[in-house]
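Quick one, probably user error.
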């Protein structure tokens, strides 16, 4: 399970801190994207002041950018892609004192061996060294270069893109590095938008795992007047979505946990995430299907796109009514069902 993997990787960092202790010049520690909630304990036990930057709302408040306040040490979980890594290095450097320490940790199979090269591409002054290797997990350390001038505001990373949305055509979309399918409309979302039946005007539509909001944006252009609700665990995704669909409701949280109990919708649409962090995780997909009957109005519809190999079609046939395949291409399948 991905939670177990994340805990195992976090435990390597904990073992290092408990073995060596925090650096003597690191009284203020910023921990970034620790979805396990485990890493703060050894630093606090050693007397450090610990703050957190959580981009994802798995537990508690999440923020797309770190809050203000200077720190001596940043502990950064390696993200899934390098554009997100570059942005995060700039973000945390804006809080890290010159000469302060950046620790980056992750698995060998996640690309941690490439992190020193990627750091030097951010700025040649970033020089990373390996602190520890255990269970195919590495911890790297680099000092913030004295002359490094970070892009210190989220707005400086904002990008306006043009996507060719099915049935709509070229459409402006705001996005940020590291968001799903950044800079393009992925095949699965395009397939869903092309096959999506239009709901009635005024319908309540939930986009679960919305990302930057491409699905809802495409639907809103075809059918104005819908009541849009966009949910995502990534606060940066919701920041982008709020620019793309001003006036919609935005719900931070993991899957159905983002949605108020008792809320029901005429249409739930989703290109659900199949990973949590670096590891495959079908829990959001399974929960999406299992809870849909309780979240749809009478006659409401769930439309999702995913890989046929996930078994979603069989699961929907067990739990929902009037299940049909709306489109399929290269192993990607769009499925519709009634609650």
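Nope, works fine. Designed sequence:
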């Amino acid at each position: 399970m991905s939670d177990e993997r994340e805990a195992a990787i976090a435990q390597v960092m904990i073992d290092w801190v408990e073995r060596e202790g925090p650096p003597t010049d690191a009284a203020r520690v910023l921990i970034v994207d620790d979805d396990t909630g485990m890493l703060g304990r050894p630093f606090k036990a050693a007397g450090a002041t610990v703050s957190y930057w959580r981009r994802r709302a798995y537990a508690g408040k999440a923020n797309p950018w770190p809050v203000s306040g200077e720190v001596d040490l940043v502990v950064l979980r390696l993200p899934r892609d390098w554009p997100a890594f570059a942005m995060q290095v700039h973000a945390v450097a804006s809080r890290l004192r010159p000469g302060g320490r950046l620790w980056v940790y992750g698995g060998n199979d996640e690309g941690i061996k490439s992190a020193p090269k990627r750091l030097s591409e951010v700025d040649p002054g970033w020089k990373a060294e390996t602190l520890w290797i255990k269970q195919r997990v590495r911890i790297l350390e680099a000092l913030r270069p004295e002359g490094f001038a970070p892009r210190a505001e989220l707005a400086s990373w904002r990008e306006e893109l043009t996507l060719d949305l099915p049935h709509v055509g070229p459409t402006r979309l705001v996005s940020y590095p590291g968001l799903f399918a950044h800079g393009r409309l992925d095949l699965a979302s395009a397939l869903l938008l092309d096959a999506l039946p239009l709901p009635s005007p005024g319908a309540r539509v939930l986009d679960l795992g919305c990302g930057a909001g491409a699905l809802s944006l495409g639907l809103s252009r075809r059918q104005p007047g819908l009541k849009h609700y966009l949910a995502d665990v990534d606060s940066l995704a919701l920041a982008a979505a709020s620019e793309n669909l001003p006036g919609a409701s935005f719900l931070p949280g993991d899957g159905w946990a983002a949605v108020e109990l008792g809320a029901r919708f005429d249409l739930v649409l989703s290109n659900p995430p199949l990973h949590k962090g670096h590891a495959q995780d079908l829990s959001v997909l399974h929960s999406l299907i299992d809870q849909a009957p309780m979240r749809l109005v009478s006659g409401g519809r769930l439309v999702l796109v995913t890989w046929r190999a996930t078994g979603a079609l069989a699961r929907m046939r067990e739990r929902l009514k009037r299940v049909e395949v709306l489109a399929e291409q290269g192993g990607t399948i769009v499925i519709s069902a009634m609650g």
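Residues 202 and 225 are 5 Å apart (CA to CA).
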